[in-house]
Amino acid sequence: MSKLEELIQELCPDGVSVYRIDQLCSISRGRVMSKDYINENKGCFPVYSSQTELDGELGRISSYDYDGEYLTWTTDGANAGTVFYRNGKFSVTNVCGILGVNNEKIITKYLYYSLKREAPAHVNSGMGNPKLMSNVMARIQIPVPPIEVQSEIVRILDKFTTLTAELTAELTARRKQYEYYRDALLSFGKVSPPLTFGLNNEEVRWMTLGEIATDIFRGAGITRDQITQSGISCVRYGEIYTTYGVHFDKCVSHTKLENIPSPKFFEHGDILFAITGESIEDIAKSTAYMGKEKCLAGGDIVVLKHKQNPKYLAYALSTTDAQKQKGAGKVKSKVVHSSVPAISELKIPVPSLALQEKIANVLDNFDAVCNDLNIGLPAEISLRKKQYEYYRDRILSFNTNVNNSIHGGGNLQDEIKLLQYVFGYAMVRLGDIATIMRGGSFQKKDFSAFGVPCIHYGQIYTKYGLHADKTFTFISETAAEKQKFAEPNDVVMAVTSENVEDVCKCVAWVGKEKIAVSGHSAIIHHNQNAKYLSYYFHTSMFFEQKRKLAHGTKVIEVTPDTLTKIQIPIPTLSEQERIVAILDKFDALVNDLSQGIPAEIEARKKQYEYYRDKLLSFKKAG
Asked: In a 3-state reduction of DSSP, which class is residue 219?
């Protein structure tokens, strides 16, 4: 039973009381603050509004309206019902509501987590303008357990939030790295020295899109009211900013062809530009269509037809240099526009089609690792969020049933292969690539002269090196009937020792038959190179991890199940084989009695013994 379950069992076994928000908090609204006002009163105190970026921060001014611990929520627009936790000196605009806890029965942070779950269900989306006004917020009901239970819930959910934040920070760094390599790969001599990755060594022409295009035209207007559940696929310009990445193959919207007087079509390989936007930095965002059906282009979209690699063009048009060209000469205002002539003047490098394909493949892999919700960090963040939502709903439900389930995206082995392709290796948990079970129960007294080959855990310390293809001992067929076995390519690890330094010593079993394994051992069954794993399990990196798992005083043990948490770098199998070949040579040089330094030492010993015996073999007196 967890600490939370114990607290609930002790303090509120029969359920908890429910309170309305207006019984727990003071409720107010922010004040009108324009961007001009914020610019004229710049300072260090944040102003929060409806945006989700930067946690809703709109800017910073020289004064503040609130000081302390509060909750704010977005009252109007697409983000209506979004709840934020605030702690410090700040102000909010008139599209935000603010809650100040004034009831000692509730912790502000607990209320925050409760409302993040509950508030979205109370948003009114009528008339196309979502709202969660103060009078509705006031009537929302929240279960309020004892303070001790609230504190434990906050501790658990804070931990989930921190883990997700750390992953998000890592993903942000990875995306910046991706953008750097993307720009460098597509610079073709604009940076010195150019970063080529061994790809772009050929002469490259810089061409305008007007020179590249076989046709370039604007789409036809498709209003929000003309979007239908079925019909012909279409793209509206706003979706290029919010829905589509560098390339896409399926449209999210549909309309009826008869609704569009002069339809404009795009097809496989075409590049779409959104020529109306809210900022100079994002104007003319582009995406390549990789689908198979013909689709309709909405108004404020420019369609570029060409004979190049569409993915390559999409990446070339997403670089920092291309974006600077898109924004050049644009005037900052509420709405920013581009045009067909402006798009036609954009200049990008155009290598051969073969090189375009190679570059697109490399950048596809980078992009997937950074952005694909099925793999890599995005997948882990998505999984963490679902896991967080599951536990949040579970622990905030109080005697209600929660049917949410956790779904992980993608195929783990595909993810590993992609990371290996892009970065040379994948850092995985041992549990991701292996199953681990305990050894059997035979003892030394069960050894026999012949029978089933076996390894006793003590022998791993005294008789075996890094790998073995023959055992020193056997047990009878009868004794073997109830034992656990290691298969060829498994790793056998001793998990009991007299000291931390030696515990988890292992041997890779590279013999051709399965072998019985004794207790105090872990059998690691996997799909990697057994010798590679064995070498890694003898490194200082593994030592630092196993030390944290070891427990005991006189006898040190590591529970086999906990080994699944071990982090290990996994290169491709061919690279593992190459590493093993090198380490095998070093191992032979240092340890093998038939060659290298040990062989020389052995020869010197024999030479010494020969001369020693010669020198000391005096002829006996008659």
From this structure: coil
Helix (H) or strand (E) holding 29: strand 25-29
H/E stretch holding 142 reads strand 141-144
Which spans in 463-595 are helix H?
Answer: 477-480, 530-536, 540-549, 573-591
Name the amino acid, one letter, at 258: E
Kindly give the pairing relationship between strand 25-29 and strand 83-92: unpaired
DSSP-assigned letters across all residues of 287-317: EEE--SS-EEE-TTEEEEE-SS-HHHHHHHT
Q: Which residue has the higher pLDDT, 526 or 127?
A: 526
For 14, the 3-state DSSP assignment is coil
- Run of H or E residues at 233: strand 232-235
Distance CA(257)–CA(377), nearest Å, equals: 40
Contact assessment for residue 497 and residue 520, using Cβ atoms and an 8 Å cutoff: no
Query: 461, 527, 536, 538: which is closest to 490 by C-alpha?
Result: 527
The answer to which of 165-169, 245-249, 406-410, 563-567 has the lowest mean pLDDT is 406-410
Which one, of 513, 507, 483, 473, lies nearest residue 493 by Cα? Answer: 507
CA dihedral 356, 357, 360, 364 (to 10 degrees): 180
Torsions phi, psi of 73, nearest 5?
A: -140, 155
SS3 177: helix
What CA–CA distance (Å, rounded) separates 562 from 546?
9
Token pair listed for 425? 């290796």
Within 8 A by CB and 6+ apart from 394, the residues are 402, 404
Q: Which residue has the tokens 């702690």?
A: 87
Q: Give the contacts of 174 (CB within 8 A, at least 6 positions apart).
A: 369, 370, 377
Classify residue 374 as exposed, middle or buried by CB count within 10 Å of its CB (0-12, 13-18, 19+): middle
- pLDDT at position 192, please? 43
> Omega of the bond prior to 569 within 30 degrees of 0, cis?
no
Instruction: Tell me if 474 sits within 8 A of 451, measured CB to CB.
Output: yes
CA distance 28 to 30: 7
Position 620 scores a pLDDT of 45
Q: What Cα–Cα distance (Å) separates residue 19 from each residue in 40, 106, 394?
A: 42, 10, 19
pTM (two decimals): 0.44
Residue with tokens 């052995």: 602
Distance CA 235, CA 255 (A): 10
Q: In 530-572, which residue ranges form alpha helices assigned H by DSSP?
A: 530-536, 540-549
For residues 233 and 254, give the distance between their C-alpha atoms in angstroms, rounded to a whole number: 4
The C-alpha atoms of residue 586 and residue 580 are separated, in whole angstroms, by 10
Backbone angles phi, psi at 335, to 5 degrees: -125, 130
Q: What is the spatial distance between Cα 380 and Cα 415, in angstroms, rounded to a whole number?
A: 11
**Among residues 322, 286, 290, 326, which one has the least CA distance to residue 309?**
290
The Cα-based distances of 568 to 433, 434, 507, 565, 574 in angstroms read 10, 11, 17, 9, 17
Question: How far, in Å, CA of 546 to CA of 567, rounded?
Answer: 10
